[in-house]
User: Fold these one by one.
Assistant:
Number 1:
Amino acid sequence: MRGTHGWAEVARERKREIIAAIAENRPTRGPVHAELDLTDRCNVACYFCNQQDLRTKESIPLPKLTELIDELQSTGLKSVRLSGGGDPLFHRDVLNVMDHLALRGVIIDNLTTNGVALTNEVAERLVKNQAREVIFSLNAADAEDYARMMKVKPALFDKVVENMKNLVAVRGDSIYPSIVIQFLIDQKNVSRLVDMYELARSVGPDRVAINAVLEIPMDRIDRQVLLTPDDRYAAEPLVEEILRRDREIGMLQVDFAIAGWNEMLSAVRARVNTPAHNAYPIAPSFKNENGGCFFAWYTAAITGNGDIRPCCLLLNPSVKPLGNVHDKPTFAEQWNGPEFAKMRDEMREVMLMKNRIAYSPARFDVLKEPCVTDGLCWLKNMYFRADEEFYAELDQTLEQVRKKEIRWMFGGNKARKRAAELFIQEHPKLKKSWDWLRESSRPARIFLKSRLGVDLTDAV
């Protein structure tokens, strides 16, 4: 069973609580899922890792972790992801943390690790406690390229491969945990796609994930190492070969967020006559207008120094923390505090406006562009949109709220502003004219605000 960012562990009534809280603009009683980044300590310095720019030498002490787990479990925590700015397995008390999670009935939905410290004791606990998924960030087909990408000694590569094989052996016939080997490709290793696939296959995982490096945080190396749209032509025969080798096995999970690459992938799939194995389905009830993020009612990420972050994809220096678990006696005070409330306000606005708000830093204090602009965040696209009942109920609820809070008459200035902005967004020709007007005619906006009470200062 693969990880679901905890969604598979959430009861229907708890999902309804999330929907009701969105409608009423209030917090839920606590997160159902949490990312616990146990430590900022890591033995690697991957050039593509955004989280190392937040890296400290700190770890959350075991007493604080057990206290935190106890409190979160008491308000409904069902699962955690162990990942972070460092490798979670480098926390000195990681075995005790795993034992305490099991004691409280909290599932490890996902463990993401480079695998160096995945000892036999860790493997045994993952299997015994029915962890849902372990992702090994291997990223390379041999020791030399591993050292280039991870900035470590080449000898660690063989150790990681052995640790992966050991977890497969310890798991035996169990379905827990699902084992994923992940590779990241760039200009220097894209030619090794077939070698990557064969190496992973020799280990015996459930899935082989292949993605491209998309960003180089802080420009720490030359950006020319990133793949370009034109590189797909050289990669196409290699992609075709691994799809042919995987056709009867179905281990590959391939997706390329580079212009033109997924079109190439689709064409190769058709030629090879192989489906998109391991794809994430979308329920008929899902509508893109309801596809905004709801993590402010669902989850939180806590880093090794105790900082509370909006989510695991916003762990970088440009995103300020929502608080710190060491600053207040309980996590509930943070969850119900002003920073989470601000994030909920912003997420709710995106939902009410049918996922059509254009991002601007002036408009959003907590959210960043991937949170607002459709298609830029892969996380909210993956695990949730197959839930037919949830999205049917969310659609029904949001429609009722929109009728009350987006209206031209009797709703106040904010409701009129929403109505005007949404009308513009839903009519492309009008939006084009409005964009021109907004850029060239400040007096028109002043007139609308002063005479009609419609404030479109931030509208796009």
Number 2:
Amino acid sequence: MKDVEVFAYCRERLQALCPGLTSELVEELSLGWRILRLDKREHLAEAGRIHDEAFLIIEGLVRAYYPDVEGDVTVNFIAEGEFATHYTSLEAPRPSHFAFQTLEPTVAVAFSYEYVYQLSLRRWEMERLLRVLLEHEYTRLLEHTECLLMRSGEERYRLFVQTFGALMPRISVSDLSSYLGVSRQNLTLIRKRLLGE
């Protein structure tokens, strides 16, 4: 994908997320963008560091995870058209517990937090866009947390297939089992049982 196509997709996606966004604001916002092209298993941002950018995924798939002594714990999958970022980094610069790693070759547009913050001081529409993005992420996070707390492993798997089925061929069993909060063995048993229905 050529740079001009990447920026065009980025503009379209922002206006789809926040329909009232003016083209002037999008153009001003685009002055702070940069394009990243990464191979499989590269990091957009690492845990334990201060994240100073958000990434709109143009092509590819990214997982958010936190490192644990027993193995990485996947907390989200970010596909095309979604943002990979730890939104609390917008509030105050502090090290993030989360890392963002590509699961396949990925093209992303990076947004500098500092540039976005400065723009939001001058343009009220920028605050609206940030609010929409934050609401979207917090809703997703709350739904995933409730699912982990209130549903069985099989129910979590069924819900994932129903909601994100198109991502299944792109995700490893290890990453999916970590996201669902079940062991690889249990996930294999769940899948076999559901195939037998």
Number 3:
Amino acid sequence: MAHTDHQTMRRVLRREIAGTIGLLTDEHDFRAMRRYRSFTFDDHTAYLRQVEDLLKTRAAQGSHTTVALFDPQEYAEYCTDAGLDPDIQSSRTRFTAELATTGPTIPYDGQPLADLVPALVDEAVRQATWEYASTLLARLGACASCGEDIGRAAFVRASHLLVRILETAQRGDRHLVCSVTGTPETLLSVLRTEEDTDGATHLDEAEALEFTTVLALGLATQSPGGLVMRTSAPGTPDRIYGWRMRGDGLEPLTAGEVFDAYCTDIASGDLISPESDVDYCAPPDLGDAGQTPGHHH
């Protein structure tokens, strides 16, 4: 592509950025936008390269840029609802500005686009999971017997359990995975915490909110599911343990059950070699966390 063509593409992109760029992360979404005559890009790889160049240029100039996930279907619906022509640049700019406040976004801080794209997709999945789980929780309504809001009570219970799980974990970084399989869609949520040099635990509040919501949904609906914890600290083996959801609480998995879960191929059922320097073990006692306030009838 000629140098002047690169300059033209950069100018087009720059006009569509107002502190936020709506990124078409995959080829399918890119092709969907090509039906608009005013969308002048014809090659997804070249488009991504130009976006990255522009992000680097803005960063070098001291400009802060947020990257949002641009969904062509949502864009078309937005234009219909707002009475906008989807085939003009100003409509895309307006939609992107809306994404900055409502959609999944990641601040650009110099990371390669190859790292930013999967992180942005993960953020979109996390937000969608939280919205879906929150909607299902809210639909549970009030208990016919006592009038208590079932979803709210389950969220309180899940919060108590999460705090207790983190309190009883060994020092170091933690990686938790919660899965709930009994709802119409299988939900999976991940929570990572890091420990600083002073021993303080740091976590992402949005991740924690989503994780707690998914756990609460599993407890409230008494769905099949589980929670697995992996702790990592320098100089010691990683520890892996977990619980299955049972009723409106958590039941500890034995060390053997954890080992079997990690050392069996889900698709084939064949055994997989265990990781070296990993301790598959029973979880710590959560004490009276099992008796935390919650909805029990």
Number 4:
Amino acid sequence: MLSLTRLKKFCWLGYGIVLLNGILFAYDFEACKQKAMFSMERVNNTYGIAVKRLGNTTESETLTPSKVALFVYSPKSAPKGYKILKHDPFLGMYLLESKSELLPISLRAIHKEILEDEMASILPLEGVSGKIQTRMQSPIDYATLNTPTFPNSLISTVCDHIYGIGIGKNEFIEKDYLERFIHSDSIYYGDIGVRVFQNNDDKVEVNLIDPFFPANPFVYGDEIMMINGEAIPNVAHFNRVVFDLKEREIVPVRISRNGTVMELQVRVDKRRGGMLLKEDFLGRVGIEINSDFVITSVAPYAKNGFERLKVGDKVLRVNQQAVPKGYDAIIHLLGRYPDKTQKWLISRDDFQFFINVNQKQPIQTQESIIQGLLNESNAFSL
């Protein structure tokens, strides 16, 4: 309930708080919707929100409409008909050059004292109000209201203070994460070579290992307790900490492995896939596969045995283990031998033969594939 002093102030400012028999009955965000029109531009079937002026702006011009960068959350398709200034393919966020002159919004950080305030998802012609339900935990663990949010809406109090941008369902993005995207020089998320889940003991457990991540020290079942000195109580916290790690820095990771606490050292790499993108574990070594472990692409930069593969080769066994079906299952198998030489049984043109991949040491022999096929020790006819 608002205090009488705040209530009188809001009514005086014209924010439309409705009273019935002297009792607060409802909030009217009409003034917020009208103000939103000055900072929003129709973009295809949604809105773009003015978040940053383009070009140099003097202090006297900050209250004057101008061409701006528009923020648009569009995870399924790229906005059409606009110049794209920046795109985050992991999360589906865009900055576009506006076509009209607008006033950029001013974002505020969420503080404890406003958590109980009425908060609305605002568009120029629509609005729905509720309260903050959860805070944002990482770039992919969004804040929520206890009511649905409109995609690309302003998350605002009745005072026109803006605390985020709605993205649909009941979710919204807070100030810090928006500004990370808006002001960053490049799109970057850190990676330590594993994917995790919250296990039945409420621990953060490794359930997928990037098999060719350099010097990957993890094994399946490792429970991650701490990264770079910060405790990891849940997957959202894992995401936040890992995504912010700097590329190539070496960080300590405390784990529990089979009940034994251990300290590992991991060199951070940049995230290559996942979130909205397909996971790209094999792009690191220059190949692509389908769900049957048939090679579909070999890049010119492939080396360490991978360059010996050809499109159409089918991998039958890895280190004497039969290959499962499905991309995730294949990566799970390869992840049992992280950053180690692997012996693959290949089927090509009615022949089967072995090759070693991820072999970091210089290969001693110069034998060609054909010579390998003719070697009785590693080839036989189908």
